[in-house]
Amino acid sequence: MKKTVLITGASRGIGRATAELFAYRGCNVLINYNSSHSDAAELVSVLKGNGFEAELFKADVSARGQVDRMLEYCAERFGGIDILVNNAAISDSRLFTEITQSEWDRMLDINLKGVFNCTQSALKYMLPQKRGVIINVASMWGETGGACEVHYSASKAGIIGFTKALAKELGPSGIRVNCISPGVIQTDMLKEYDRDSLEELKSSAPLMRLGTAGDVASGIFYLSSDEADFITGQVLGINGGMVI
Ligand code: NAP
């Protein structure tokens, strides 16, 4: 039977590459986006044009009502959900002392509460079927801490704790929960870095290159697959060896 996967923040970057990979591997794919409508619509149209099952849903992951409607739509359209990829996030770079309360709240609302919202909403469908996979996208900064990214690092460290705790709670219900921790990946999220900083980051990775969205998508796909059936509560670093 075809599996159904919902990927948050799939209009661009890692989420987009993940949606493409799951579609090409025969899954029904629900592509979530918030503001990049034309990118998301173009992706769905390309996937459908190639004969794959893909749909689009606009929802801000920090808004619970929108998230609940998205999961209802997923169940109506595809009959349920098998895999949830919590990928949507924002980033921001500034000194800790300059982070305002509203910037702090926005970061945590999208990056961490978004994971809470989507996961709780998806569990309404996964728990009764006693089956499901949840993949949360954290960051190496959540493991090691990034200077001038304290709010981002805190949100990603929160995702790691969330993953480990929930994996213990949901294992007996047949649901696996894992975390992907990307290093420096070439997407729009790097646009604040200048060329010199990127070169420096590249040379500090043992594999001497930046990651691609496809590198991360492959890890997400593996952890979602039956090949990873005995893996839960883990953090898979995809960082070219930058964090060992
Ligand atoms: P990206 O290219 O900036 O894409 C971010 C995605 O998140 C977009 O599709 C965006 O959709 C969506 N998004 C943002 N706010 C949203 C909201 N409120 N509701 C729903 N969707 C929202 O970033 P990326 O590099 O692919 O990052 C993907 C994940 O990897 C994130 O969790 C990020 O923290 C993590 N990560 C990235 C790197 C890196 O170096 N790139 C490193 C470590 C971890 P719209 O444009 O439609 O709003």
From TrEMBL:
Looking up Gene3D superfamilies in the UniProt record yields:
NAD(P)-binding Rossmann-like Domain (3.40.50.720)
Please give one Gene Ontology molecular function term for this protein.
oxidoreductase activity
Record keywords: Lipid metabolism, Oxidoreductase, Steroid metabolism
For this protein, the record's PROSITE patterns field holds: ADH_SHORT
Instruction: Give the signal peptide, or none.
Output: none
UniProt xrefs under SUPFAM superfamilies: NAD(P)-binding Rossmann-fold domains
The alphabetized list of GO BP terms reads: monocarboxylic acid metabolic process; steroid metabolic process
Q: InterPro entries recorded for this chain?
A: NAD(P)-bd_dom_sf, Sc_DH/Rdtase_CS, SDR, SDR_fam
Q: Which NCBIfam families match?
A: EF_P_mod_YmfI (NF047420), PRK07231.1 (NF005559), PRK12826.1-2 (NF009466)
Q: Which family, according to UniProt?
A: Belongs to the short-chain dehydrogenases/reductases (SDR) family.
Record PANTHER family: 3-OXOACYL-(ACYL-CARRIER-PROTEIN) REDUCTASE (PTHR42879), 3-OXOACYL-[ACYL-CARRIER-PROTEIN] REDUCTASE FABG (PTHR42879:SF2)
Q: What is this protein called?
A: 3-oxoacyl-[acyl-carrier protein] reductase
